[in-house]
Amino acid sequence: MDMISVLFLAWIVNSIDAFNDFPSLISANASMAVVIEKNLFDNKAEYRDVVRNIYNFIANITREEMHMSDIDVHVFRDTDIDSFRDYTALLSVATCHQMWSLHNAARKDEIVHLAITEQDCPRLPDSEGVSVPLVSSGKELSQIFFDIRTADALFWNNVNILHDDTFDRDTINRVTKAISVSLPNKRFNLVSRALFAYKHTDSERNRRYYIKEMLENFHVDQLGKCFLVIVTIDAAADVMEAAKILNMAQPDSQWLYIITDTVTGNSTNITSLVDLLSEGSNVAFIYNATNSDAYCNNSLMCHIKELVAALANALKLSLMTEIELYSHVSDEEFEIIRLSKRERRREILKLIKTKLVEDTFATGGVCGKCLFWRFASAITWGNFFIHGKNTAHLIDSGSWFPTLGMNLTDVIFPHIVHGFRGIDLPVATYHNPPWQIISLTDSGKKEYGGLVFDVVKYLAKKMNFTYSVLSPASNRTIKFTRNESETEVVLTSTTREIPPEILDMVVGKRVLLAACAYTVNNRGRKEINFTLPIFIQTYSFLTAKPGQLTRALLFAAPFAKETWACLAASIIIMGPSLYLIHKYSPSNAKMSGLNSSWRCVWYIYGALLQQGGVYLPHSDSARLLVGIWWLVVMVVVATYSGSLVAFLTFPNMDSAILTVNALLANKNRLTWGFPNGSYLEEYLKNAEEEKYHILLKRAIIHNATQEPEIIKKVKAGKHALIDWRSTLRFLMRSDLLTTKGCSFSLSTDKFMDEPIAMIIAQDSPYLKIINAELHRMHESGLMNKWITEQIPTKDKCSDISATQSVNERKVNVTDMQGIFFVLFMGVTGSIFLLCCEFYWHRRQVAKRRKLIQPFLS
Ligand SMILES: *[C@@H]1O[C@H](CO)[C@@H](O)[C@H](O)[C@H]1NC(C)=O
Ligand SMILES: *[C@@H]1O[C@H](CO)[C@@H](O)[C@H](O)[C@H]1NC(C)=O
Ligand SMILES: *[C@@H]1O[C@H](CO)[C@@H](O)[C@H](O)[C@H]1NC(C)=O
Ligand SMILES: *[C@@H]1O[C@H](CO)[C@@H](O)[C@H](O)[C@H]1NC(C)=O
Ligand SMILES: *[C@@H]1O[C@H](CO)[C@@H](O)[C@H](O)[C@H]1NC(C)=O
Ligand SMILES: *[C@@H]1O[C@H](CO)[C@@H](O)[C@H](O)[C@H]1NC(C)=O
Ligand SMILES: *[C@@H]1O[C@H](CO)[C@@H](O)[C@H](O)[C@H]1NC(C)=O
Ligand SMILES: *[C@@H]1O[C@H](CO)[C@@H](O)[C@H](O)[C@H]1NC(C)=O
Ligand SMILES: *[C@@H]1O[C@H](CO)[C@@H](O)[C@H](O)[C@H]1NC(C)=O
Ligand SMILES: *[C@@H]1O[C@H](CO)[C@@H](O)[C@H](O)[C@H]1NC(C)=O
Ligand SMILES: *[C@@H]1O[C@H](CO)[C@@H](O)[C@H](O)[C@H]1NC(C)=O
């Protein structure tokens, strides 16, 4: 117990200690460690000069900037330092490698790290320090790419670098390295890169020719679709033109142009490139906006001065806030609520950044202003549908200064990240359930639903657009339905035709796509393209549900005909056998019951029905025979009654026609057919298997007007209707609702696939990305989910017939009519025999009289 409380106390003291480890700015002057590495300097003299003067230099700056307090400066000549525990800030002037190893120590101690380093060095994270690479003019490209990568502004895993051969090898090499080298704290993700140089000529024609030749032989499939083009402004126009002509600027490719010549003055003007942007392309520019006339000082001392001044200013402001706080609270409270070391670092860094931005944009010019680059992104997606003409434009997406690094105000490729950027696009549709359903809400607004709109809604979410629907004021009367049960059943599959107005809208590019289900066919191929199929329809056929077999002869059903014959034969054979054994047995005592073959047959028959004879033979041989017969009788009777129960319980159904082969086998009993205009005709004609040709040859093609008759014929079992499986299921379902029973059976055979897709204008750039999204919808199973929601995929009839059979267990008169008929026949037969016997008797008597008469007379 004591132990625990002691430990607890120790922990509290410790944590308070840790919290207040670092003194507030009020109680102690800030301290700064200065590390200057020799390797960064080319000549020893400069190094010695800097080290000698740095102390005074910093003191002079702080004196100017802060009046109340001071910065204690400690200059290290050695770079091997483990801990900066006692310092507020670290100023390092070191090579890239050394800067990062110093930063590891500085980060541990949570101090502000100000670094001046060589160029081509990844910058420190914004939350931990400020680093300024000493970039010399003309060599800034690689640093820009380091900064882009540090900011995670490009998501490329492959890149094709195009440039003309005027750029020296060194520049290109450094850019390539900046793109592909692995960075601290960043995942390495570049998979491949390829370099292409084209020949530079002064003649515009030749230049165009070389560019075109290079792009023409380009293997996009292998090399990817991310292009980095390092060019002058004139060549940029040529490359853009070539890419446009070769159709390489597509929504799934990205073109980043680095334009190196400065745009100040009138020599170059980025806006003029807008005309070369094509609809749906992803193009961004990074261009040199350096004002070469402005005064510029890029010396080390200038950067040190700028950074230290910013730090001093930040410390001053931070101290003022602290004093303000101190004056309002007690000492104890102040100790608790004042900033921790990490919070202080964050605050100071923020203040330094603000000061640097201010300095950079202030007139007069300081070291950070020597170079200035700007980023511009093209907005090209969906302009076509909005304005009716191509009105691509550029937006400013950021800037780059050597001191501040990159400042992105938007993403570099807005369409890659944000798709259509939330714009409103037109789509065309018409009412065609269950594919597209236009319904009216209670407030009279049109609502769009159905399978195709499930897809379009998801597409809009994924590609960041909203849509407004255009539907032709068609002559076809559209029935608006308010709820599901009223939906009239469309018998024939209705995706073979599409209103011509919709086709016009698609071909005229007035809509992004037609949100209509349309069977993929060759008719409109010249003007439109189909998207990936959203659904594959298969064909099946519908026949009448097979009836129950008649149960009149149910009592005979348990045994097959052969069994019955065998049984009859055994009775007929057993009778005489018994008679013979009985007769020739030595111990035969005259017994009236068995002394004729005929009587023996009756005896055996009686035994079969378990009636037992009155007589039992005396001889053992005959008894054995009779005994064995009883055994046989027991087995036969048990088998018969068992099966009879089973036959009574389960109705005996006729076999259904469920396959194409079965249908063809029944061709004399029933006809078949499919609706007029179905693509089935085409499919069957081109089918390989012979049976489909027969199917087509004997098929009756019927018109829409004949539908009610056809259904009646199907119900009567005289016709089989071939159509989409889903349509047939609809038919079965609606029939189930009206007749409360199943009158159809659907074939198990599915044949011929009919793909259904949406349509889009022939050369629409968006087809590929829409297809990619559709593919993803299929893969993720979303499409299946929507299909099962909108289209019945199970027919309920099979379940229902099972429940019906359970209800039918009672044995009714029809089941028993057979045996009553046999009884009737028996009675009739015996009456007939009685008559015969009377007649026979009469004749016998008459004969006797005739014989007797002469004797009497
Ligand atoms: C800060 O430094 C100045 C000048 O060196 C000194 O006058 C002042 O006392 C110091 N302040 C603290 C709190 O140590
Ligand atoms: C610092 O200021 C003093 C006088 O204000 C000046 O003599 C000295 O040269 C300055 N030192 C540096 C390195 O600028
Ligand atoms: C950018 O423009 C400046 C001023 O014209 C020039 O000095 C510098 O070399 C240019 N940068 C590149 C990479 O060409
Ligand atoms: C830029 O254009 C303006 C007017 O179009 C012209 O007065 C000026 O001389 C041009 N400057 C250069 C450097 O060409
Ligand atoms: C660039 O050219 C367009 C016309 O082509 C002009 O309207 C615009 O002012 C120019 N911009 C600059 C910065 O010269
Ligand atoms: C650049 O700035 C530093 C510090 O402000 C100064 O010492 C140096 O003389 C300046 N160089 C030029 C060329 O103006
Ligand atoms: C980035 O640029 C925007 C707009 O130009 C500006 O308001 C903002 O202060 C800049 N931020 C930084 C950190 O430079
Ligand atoms: C859609 O675009 C808007 C406008 O660019 C953007 O603000 C939004 O983040 C984007 N939404 C998605 C999901 O990308
Ligand atoms: C409707 O039908 C009439 C006559 O058949 C035709 O002139 C008209 O263009 C049709 N309207 C539409 C919107 O199809
Ligand atoms: C669009 O249709 C044309 C003509 O049928 C065809 O050549 C082209 O490959 C189709 N485009 C796509 C992306 O499928
Ligand atoms: C179907 O209709 C077309 C024209 O509407 C007619 O030519 C054809 O004979 C009809 N077919 C049948 C089987 O009635």
From TrEMBL:
L-glutamate binds at T519. The record marks I657 as: Crucial to convey clamshell closure to channel opening. GO terms for cellular component: plasma membrane. GO terms for biological process: detection of stimulus involved in sensory perception. Residues 1-18 form the signal peptide. It holds the Pfam family Lig_chan. It is found in: Cell membrane. Keywords: Cell membrane, Disulfide bond, Glycoprotein, Membrane, Receptor, Signal, Transmembrane, Transmembrane helix. GO terms for molecular function: ligand-gated monoatomic ion channel activity; signaling receptor activity. Residues 561-827 form the Ionotropic glutamate receptor C-terminal domain. Belongs to the glutamate-gated ion channel (TC 1.A.10.1) family. PANTHER family: IONOTROPIC RECEPTOR 20A-RELATED, IONOTROPIC RECEPTOR 60A. This is Ionotropic glutamate receptor C-terminal domain-containing protein. It comes from Lasius platythorax.
